[in-house]
Amino acid sequence: MRILVVEDEPALRDGLVDLLRGAGHAVEAVGDGQAAAQRGVHESYELVLLDLMLPKLDGIEVCQRLRKARPDLLILMLTARGSEEDRVRGLKTGADDYVTKPFGARELLARIEALGRRAGAAPAQPEVVELDGCRIDLGRCEARRGTQTTALTAREAGILRWLHRHRARAVSRVELLEHVWGAQPDMETRTVDMTIANLRAKIERDPAGPRIVVSVKGVGYAWGQR
Fold it and tell me: pTM of the prediction?
């Protein structure tokens, strides 16, 4: 399983990485909430091991962002807060399970194994969408039009995934920054426009007249045809 460890205490973070790698998992780690939101949204992790008390963004906010962007992502909260109220809050926010520090290595690995079994029994979310003659594989980060296949960046795939998931409405630039970039909303929104211009050049039949990622005046962008 590909796992992202989010823990701000270096010693514990390194220990978790060693434990999980020793159990055969592919593991990466970050030490703050902003990096967790950014990586978790547009990288293809299967599970996030998420501390609740983090710098920059707390674990609850990170969990909310990840759950909105990746409904199928497994989230296991790991925290020193052990009250019933904290556990309920974490689970209602979108966590799949909750482990309180200090914890046993065997228990943690067993909970991860149980979550993996549960995910394997659930139907996978569709990752391939087609529109205006373009077949987009979000899982593989590639787009195919006719005989030509073009690689997409993880962020470009993240934009398409978010727009498609919310295709019933327009999406603002600030929303894309928050949920795809994992950035604060005061970041320069021109970044979104530049990324979408590059994306259109890859997927649109006519980038000057887009039909997949369309502009919505005064709002931002939307998934094109229904």
Answer: 0.60
